[in-house]
Amino acid sequence: MPVSFETSRAAFEDYILLERGQSKNTAETYRRGLELWRAYCEEAGLDPLDVAQEVLSSFIHALKNQGRAGSSIQLIVAGLRSWVKFRVLNGDLPMNTWIPVLPAKTKKLPKILTEGEIQRILDACDGPGYYDCRDRTALETLANCGVRASELCGLKVGSLNLDDKNLIVLGKGSKERQVPFAEDLKRQFQIYLQKRLEFLGGDKTEKTLFLSSRREPLSRVDLWRIVQKRGKMASVPEERLFPHVLRHSIATHLLRRGMDLRTLQEFLGHSSIATTEKYLHFDLELRDVYDRAHPRA
Questions:
Q1: Does domain 5-89 have CATH number 2.60.120.10?
Q2: What does the UniProt keyword field contain (predicted)?
Q3: Catalytic amino acids?
Q4: pTM over 0.90, yes/no
Q5: Which residues make beta-bridge pairs with 169?
Q6: In sequence order, what are the residues at sequence separation of 6 or more whose Cβ sits closer than 8 angstroms to the Cβ of residue 84?
Q7: String of DSSP letters for 38-60
Q8: Could you state, in order of their start, the residue ranges of all structural domains in the chain?
């Protein structure tokens, strides 16, 4: 008996969470992509269970016309591709089923902030209150530890080891890694923990490290707003004001200071060194532009 789209989608979500061990963020991204696919097919009078090549091409074209970024379309198609492969594996589709191909990626070099710009953003957080201290500590953690936004939002007080100066970070695929930090950030954490305790009225039961005004864990949207607010206060161009730019920046700065790719891969939590290599290519390209443009280079 053929399964419905909803049943298949739900089974796929269980599969990627429970069997593949992928994150809830990945599952949610794939779910939203599949819902977009279903809506497109239903509007066109098509069966969303039938992922035909020509229909997928039209779907991608429609997504582009909506103004979606290439990276967003890549994620949507990646979800469709994984879903079709799951259905083949599950016996719902024959082995010779056409598997969606990811659209070609537009090569885009990561944006970065200079060390001076990062310092100006941190200085824009100076102030006596909890939110000033929270924002500075969160941004300093992003800028020094290179953690992802989702990783930072998921940090607990117990993630901090001040004696050894490292963070226990839960990364993609629920993989843990230890990320070292410097003495300056240790002092900032100590200041923040005191401010946080005062903010909570002495309550030590709350485990989440970074809290919103509602005393809930910071969301990625909250974090984006913090970067936007403090970055604008520091007069940093808006197109480079998003949490991930701090991760790009520390990766590039560490490479310039001589960190090898394998160590950087472990630091950033990349499963493949090919992902880490893009920072090397970026740094080399930036250096080449500098050498060609600077009159005394």
A1: no
A2: DNA integration, DNA recombination, DNA-binding
A3: 148, 172, 244, 247, 270, 279
A4: no
A5: 177
A6: 51, 93, 97, 99, 100
A7: HHHHHHTT--TT---HHHHHHHH
A8: 5-89, 115-293
